Automatic annotation (TrEMBL):
GO terms for cellular component: axoneme; dynein complex; microtubule. Force generating protein of respiratory cilia. Produces force towards the minus ends of microtubules. Dynein has ATPase activity. SMART domains: Dynein_light (SM01375). PANTHER family: DYNEIN AXONEMAL LIGHT CHAIN 4, DYNEIN LIGHT CHAIN. Pfam families: Dynein_light. This is Dynein light chain. It comes from Colius striatus (Speckled mousebird). Keywords: Cell projection, Cilium, Cytoplasm, Cytoskeleton, Dynein, Microtubule, Motor protein.
Length: 106
């Protein structure tokens, strides 16, 4: 029983240490980057068990705020190669291993 409690404590410590957003790559202007990052964190926290709903929320909000043709991928362990408009890409991690890629292309 002690091992189970200890394992949960270590997992909680890991999640607390890695609960901040970590930007891997972006070419967005500062203001857009901050807004997008906050939106991604909010969506991932609100839909912690449903990446599809989180991605839909991010896409719809980005389309409203910055015009249409935004795309969002959320998940773990994926690679990507995309074409995007200049100054419209954000690739970040949240909660340790959850990756979020947001980009615009028309």
């Amino acid at each position: 029983m002690a091992d189970t409690g200890e394992g949960k404590k270590e997992e909680a410590d890991y999640k607390r240490l890695h609960s901040f957003p970590l930007i891997r790559h972006t070419d967005m202007p500062e203001e857009m980057r901050v807004e997008t990052m906050e939106l991604c964190v909010t969506a991932c926290e609100k839909y912690a068990t449903n990446n599809e709903s989180a991605a839909k929320m991010i896409k719809e909000m980005m389309d409203k705020k910055f015009g249409s043709s935004w795309h969002v991928v959320i998940g773990e362990g994926f690679g990507f190669e995309i074409t995007h408009e200049v100054k419209n890409l954000l690739y970040m991690f949240f909660g340790g291993s959850l990756a979020v890629c947001v980009w615009k292309c028309s």
